[in-house]
Write a structure and sequence with these properties.
Elements: H1 3-12, H2 35-52, H3 76-87, H4 93-102, H5 112-121, H6 126-129, H7 134-140, H8 155-161, H9 164-177, H10 179-188, H11 195-202, H12 214-220, H13 226-237, H14 243-252, E1 256-258, E2 262-265, H15 274-278, H16 291-302, H17 306-312, H18 316-321, E3 323-324, H19 329-343, H20 346-355, H21 360-363, H22 372-382, H23 387-390, H24 403-414, H25 420-429, H26 435-442, H27 450-472
Helix pairs in contact: 1-2, 8-9, 9-10, 11-13, 12-13, 14-16, 16-19, 19-20, 24-25, 25-27, 26-27
Length: 476
């Protein structure tokens, strides 16, 4: 019995070609009652044999020995926690990786191939994985081309010869340690890189972005690729002291008229000059947005927020509370929100959160800018009357949550018709110290209810995280 024989019998039909006899060693049990059933029985079994019997690929293990480790390995219990995360709640992996790195330990040798594969497929996790690979992990990374992102070796050589994902990861790593060295690395091949590579690599300057990057970014505004110019303009707008920010402010100031109680913002002209285009302004407006309104949005989002506090001689909270003429308040707040998120201005972020009129999706980026207690307070204030509007904000409240906020989310979730998202967020992001209280709450619930089912999952997740973090707490 071979696969080609079975395929032939299936194509010709069992009336013309009976299935071949199956060797007893390969397929136990009595034959099926009909030729068609026997064909399907053999095909099902042989398909499993074909998949399970594939020869494993051999790793091109380097000939030299791995360097001696400089960090102790994770304790056995931490490895067991990782195995459970691999099989179940993958969302906890970033927390495990950060805790392991903070503890001054490295991943166990048996976990390295899985972590290397994961880092190759998930560029967001790669920066969290690399610090825990140890010397053996970086040595093992030479065994597979797709693990190149984690290889040790000459920095400049890896930059010049690596694939785009490898170079992106390398730039982020170097920038985190030394922004100036990372920028020099980017500049070393800038003239030879394709436009797509220039655009994606330029985004790496967001890590450690500072005034020293301005000359390079200002030069990138003259790049021949529009996508590169737009990326450079976005980064320069995140530097309120940059020359581009000053040019945007100069364009915006004449449009602002701030009275005692009312704010008036005039629309700019619907056309753009060459200087405006160079600074990243575009006429490609979203649907149902006029061209002039879109230009205004871009100006507000890119100009320093100080323009408004200076024009109105008021702090951010007073500015956002002003009445805006011509029903432009919500549109203006959307642009302010984008500017606050880009410039990471905590005062403006807090003022816009307190205004509270925008959709959760719009406000979510601001929660990472304000102090954690302010983020929790904003979401907590929405719960009594706007629980449905607060639920999408939960994953954006920076962890670790306080136990009081965890208790509030858990209690609110139990009262919702659909508690899954609430209790899942409490389990993943809540204070692990709340685990005993979550378990105690289960005793008051109907075991067959949806709330009890999701609450059990949340309590189990909190308890698992408590054990996981306790194992990795402190230094070895």
């Amino acid at each position: 019995m071979t696969w080609p024989e079975l395929v032939t019998a299936a194509l010709l039909g069992t009336a013309r070609r009976e299935p071949p006899p199956a060797p007893p060693a390969l397929l136990d049990g009595e034959p099926a009652a009909t030729p068609e059933g026997e064909l399907l029985r053999q095909a099902a079994a042989l398909a499993i044999y074909r998949r399970a019997g594939e020869r494993p690929r051999r790793l091109a293990v380097p000939d030299d020995r791995a360097p001696a480790e400089t960090l102790p390995a994770a304790p056995p219990a931490a490895g067991e926690h990782l195995a459970r995360i691999i099989d179940g709640p993958r969302a906890l992996l970033p927390e495990w990786l950060r805790a392991l790195a903070d503890s001054g330990r490295r991943a166990r040798p048996e976990d390295l191939p899985w972590l290397l594969r994961l880092g190759a497929n998930d560029r967001d996790l790669a920066p969290l994985i690399e610090p825990v690979l140890g010397e053996r992990g970086r040595w093992l990374a030479r065994a597979r081309a797709e693990w190149e992102w984690a290889r040790a070796g000459d920095e400049q050589e890896r930059w010049e010869t690596g694939a785009l994902d490898v170079r992106r990861h390398l730039l982020a790593t170097v920038r985190a340690a030394d922004p100036e060295r990372g920028r020099a690395l980017l500049a070393s091949t800038w003239g030879q890189d394709a436009a797509r590579e220039r655009e994606q690599l330029l985004a790496g300057l967001a890590t450690g972005l500072g005034p020293g990057d301005e000359p390079f970014l200002e030069a990138a505004l003259d790049d021949r690729a529009q996508s590169v110019r737009a990326a450079a303009a976005g980064l320069l707008a995140a530097l309120p002291g940059s020359a581009l920010a000053a040019r945007m402010a100069a364009r915006l100031r004449p449009l602002i008229e701030c009275g005692r109680r009312e704010l008036t913002v005039a629309l700019p002209g619907p056309e753009l000059d060459d200087a405006s285009r160079r600074d990243g302004l575009t006429l490609r407006a979203p649907a149902r947005t006029g061209r002039a309104a879109w230009i205004l949005h871009q100006l507000v989002a890119a100009a320093p927020l100080d323009v408004w506090t200076e024009a109105c001689d008021r702090p951010p909270a007073k500015v956002v509370a002003m009445k805006v003429r011509d029903r432009m308040g919500d549109a203006l707040a959307a642009a302010w929100t984008e500017a606050a998120a880009r410039q990471r201005d905590a005062a403006w972020a807090r003022a816009l959160l307190d205004r509270g009129k925008a959709a959760a999706q719009q406000l979510a980026p601001l929660l990472a800018i304000v102090p954690p207690e302010a983020a929790e307070a904003h979401v907590a204030a929405r719960l009594p009357r706007q629980a449905a509007g607060a639920e999408p904000l939960l994953p954006h409240v920076p962890p670790p949550w306080s136990e009081a906020f965890t208790a509030l989310v858990f209690k609110t979730g139990l009262a919702q018709p659909s508690p899954a998202a609430w209790l899942r967020a409490a389990g993943r992001h809540g204070a692990p110290s709340f685990a005993p209280r979550a378990a105690a709450a289960l005793e008051r619930l109907d075991p067959a209810s949806a709330a009890a089912r999701h609450a059990r999952d949340a309590a189990g997740l909190l308890d698992f995280r408590r054990a996981m973090l306790s194992t990795l707490k402190g230094t070895p």
